[in-house]
Amino acid sequence: MSTRETAVRIRQLPDGAVIRLRELHEGDEEALRRLFFRLSPATVRLRFFQPVETPSPRVLHYLADVDHDRRQAIAAVVDDEVVGVARYDRFRDAPDRAEVAVVVEDAWQGRGVGTMLLNALARDARDHGVASLTATVMGENRRMLSVARRLAPDTRVHLDHGEWAMETPLADA
User: CATH code for 9-169?
Assistant: First the structure.
């Protein structure tokens, strides 16, 4: 587990539920494994673009082991369980751009968790010099397109071989 002190932000969802937002760290591998097994097969496919039955320990370690600069991940936590994660990975050849991914447990989808996570991640990305976020989204994932447009109405989206390629400029805070 990292010795880094993690800031926790308490947020209230529109439906009144309270969640905590905090950075992920190495010690979260087990929490990510538990989250994975609470995801429906459809949510797993939308996030990983293929069916995945069991995440390997290597993948769980990679997802949890972020440096909070080049790679960042912010978790939504309820009752000590991770219910959603938003992450970015900066491009090596263009560190002012980062690829973003989000997953929210099915029971928490449609309640504002994804939007809250993306807003927190975008603030963090701006603070680290990221000017735009990119994402590839499966064609049927209209919910993610809606979240991105709420984050930044000037998000550019185009369909590429059945997947949405998105580019979201981050306005100066």
Answer: 3.40.630.30
For residue range 110-152, what is the model confidence (pLDDT) as tens digits? 898 988 999 899 999 999 999 999 887 766 677 777 777 777 7
- Exposed / middle / buried, residue 36 (Cβ in 10 Å: 0-12, 13-18, 19+): buried
Mean pLDDT (whole number) for 33-53: 81
Q: Which residue has the tokens 């209230």?
A: 12
Tokens of residue 80, six digits: 């000590």
**pLDDT over 60 (residue 5):** no
- C-alpha distances in Å from residue 130, one per residue of 17, 73, 107, 114, 126: 31, 14, 31, 20, 5
CB 47 within 8 A of CB 101: yes
Which tokens go with 28?
Answer: 């979260």
The DSSP element (H or E) to which 43 belongs, if any, is helix 41-48
| CB 84 within 8 Å of CB 108 | yes
Contact present, 58 and 78 (Cβ < 8 Å) = no
